[in-house]
Amino acid sequence: MNQRKDNYLQVWEIDFIKRENRKRFGHLRDVKKEKEIESEITRMLKKSFSFRFIELDGQTERIGKGGLESSLIGTVAHCKLCKPSNNWLGNFSPKKKIRESGLWLVQHLKANGINEKDKKIILNAIKRTKTLYPQFF
Asked: In this model, does residue 78 exceed pLDDT 90?
């Protein structure tokens, strides 16, 4: 939207999970437009990306400051070799942290990278995931 200079970006950036924002700005939403945007994003992702996953038991192992999410993001954010391409859409983000980090998020950019304990958890999860979902490997 920023690349296209679409004014709806201001609405898109509002956190509508918060009740206060829903009450205050809900009238600005164009749900049909949002669905079209989400469909376009989904098409782009399906066409241009491939994904891998590992299965982890329990939410505490996955997300938050103590989870692998933080450590994995920190690892990539601190990687000197990990850079986006020149035509990466994040270069058009209105958020400076996204443009500078090369990652499409702002949480956990300053987190520590994975440690030896994390590596063991990841390797065990990969092994278990390969067993549970051999069709994906």
From this structure: yes
